[in-house]
Structure formats: C-alpha cells, structure tokens
Amino acid sequence: MLKQVQHDEFSFLKRTYRLKNKLSSRFTLHSLLKKKAAFTLAEGATHVAHSHNIRRVAFTLAEVLITLGIIGVVAAMTIPTLINKYQMKVFETAFKKQYSAVQSAIDMQFLNNGVSDCYMYWQRDLNAYGAETSQCYELYSEIIKYMNLFKIDYSIRDSYARKAQVQANGGKFVNSSVAYDSYINTSWAYASNNGAVFLITMFSPVVIIDVNGEKGPNKWGYDVFFLVLSNHDGNLNRILLTDELATIVEKGGRLPRNILINKEKTEDSDFTIFWN
User: Fold this and answer.
1) Reported pTM
2) Structural domain contains residue 107
3) Predicted confidence band at 234 (pLDDT cuts at 50, 70, 90)?
4) pLDDT tens by residue, 157-192
5) 144, 149, 153, 156, 191 from 198: Cα distances, Å
6) What's the structural domain count of the chain?
7) What is the pLDDT of residues 242-269, one digit of tens each?
8) How far apart are CA 218 and CA 91, in angstroms?
9) How far apart are CA 17 and CA 213, in angstroms?
10) For residues 179 and 140, what is the distance between their CA atoms, to the nearest angstrom?
11) Alpha-carbon distances of 89 from 63, 84, 171, rounded to whole Å
C-alpha cells in the first residue's frame, strides 16, 4: 500500500515537471519572438529616416510636367532640322544617280556615235563663253532613246521659280547674266520610269534635272538642278555635264558641283563661273 502511494506521488511530480517545462518553453519562445519584432530606439529612428528618404525619391506632378515640357521644346527645335537634313541627303543621292545616268548617256553617244558638237566652251582670247550647238538635237534624241525617256506635258515648267522670284527670295546664281527664264520656257519635258523629270532645250547645251518630278518641293538646288554641257578643259576628249557656266540655287539649296564632290558647306566663293 505504501509503495503504491509513493509510486503515484512520483508520477504526479513527474507530470508536473513536464508541464512546467512545456509552459516555460512556450513563454520563452513567445518572449523571443516579441523581442525579435521590437525595435530599439536607434533602430526605430533609422527605419523612420529610411522610409522618409524613399518618399523623397518620387517626383511631383509639377516636376514631371516641367520635364515633359522641356523635352517637347527641345524636340520641336531639333526634329525639323534633322528631318530637313535627311531630306536634303535624299535629294543629293537622287541627283547623283540622275546625273550619272545622263553623263553616261552623253559619253555613250560621244564615244560610239561621234556626236559631240553640243557644248559650251571657254573662249580664252575673248575671255567669254561660246557655244557649239550643231549636233544638240541629234545628241538629245539619242539620249532620250538610250535612257528610255518619254515626253510629258510641258506645263510642269510652271512648277519652277523664275529668275526674278529666285533673286527676290535670296537665291544665287552662277553667272546672273544668263537668260535662265528663256531656257526654262523653251525646254521640252521628259520623264523616266523612276519619276525623274528632264527639261531639255533641244537646240542648246542645257539640261535641267528634277530628281523627283511633281513630288516637290521643286526648288533649285534642292531637287531641281540647272546644268550645261561643257568641254570644260578646252579639248574634246569628253563632254561634261556641269554647272560651270550657269546654275540657279534658291536660298538654302546647294550647288551641283558641291554635291558631286561631297562638299557640305556652300560658300559665296563657290559661285564662280569657271569650275576648275
């Protein structure tokens, strides 16, 4: 009987001890978690400062609108200039292509058919230009066939500014004494399959190239170029299509000679009659 009581008492004490340990463990873990989640005074101040800095990084609506306004002003100032430069490069590339086509046709007739008497030349003894025109009609007739050009309505001539208008708007000339209007008004109009237009004065050594026809802007020195055939160096080894006697350049346009030699800047000294 005594043994039974002692055994029960021991069992009770053992269970009590286990329950105490469990409660102690739970309270200890809870205390640790509470301590872990809490901030010290210094840690709390740092956390508040960090949150304050995060809020300061953001932009206000006024700041965003001002920035967008500045970007818009810069774009409005620079984009038109970039577009104009790009368009001029397109015109220049097209001019080189059409110039090469006409020059090749002239060379072909000169070398194969002996057609050469259609050019301007420098009369050194008279200090002036002269012209040989006896074979101009024959030369142009062969060029038209060689390049597969077809005739179009001559009313396209009205698309190009005349001498007085060019002068009034700040344009320039190589040799302002030339009767430019007469050459334009008496030219015959032809077009190629790629849209280029050629005004040809069939009885004089003048060729006008419009690289894109009616598309515009139809401005001298932009997409339209006034050129003459010349023996250039005083002999008949080759007839060249040049601007050395005469050409028209509206304000902001470029000389054919500068385009052909890839000279970017056009200067007043470039407008000389003789092209060395």
Assistant:
1) 0.73
2) yes
3) low
4) 999 999 999 999 999 999 998 999 999 999 999 999
5) 10, 9, 12, 10, 6
6) 1
7) 998 899 999 999 999 999 999 988 888 8
8) 11
9) 107
10) 21
11) 39, 9, 20
Q: Is residue 52 part of a domain?
A: no
Q: What sign does the dihedral 171-174-178-184 (CA atoms) show?
A: negative
Q: Cα–Cα distance between 63 and 93 in angstroms, integer? A: 44
User: Which structure tokens are listed for 268?
Assistant: 């007043």
How far is 99 from 96, CA to CA, in rounded Å? 5
Using CA atoms, how far residue 222 sits from 1, 54, 90, 199, 247, in Å, is: 127, 56, 10, 16, 12
User: If phi over 0 gives left and psi between -120 and 50 gives alpha, with beta otherwise, what is residue 2?
Assistant: alpha
- Round to whole Å and give the CA distance between 168 and 251: 10
Name the amino acid, one letter, at 160: Y
In a domain, 75, yes or no: no
Task: Tell me if residue 117 falls in helix, strand or coil.
Answer: coil
Higher pLDDT, 214 or 55: 214
- 142, 115 Cβ separation under 8 angstroms: yes
Distance, CA of 8 to CA of 17 (rounded, Å): 14
- Residues 138/174, Cβ–Cβ less than 8 Å: no
Task: For residue 181, give its domain range.
Answer: 94-270
For the record, the structure tokens of 22 come out as 């469990």
Distances (CA, A) of 174 to 177, 208, 247: 9, 15, 5
Helix and strand tally (H, E) in the chain? 7, 10
Is 49 part of a structural domain of the chain? no
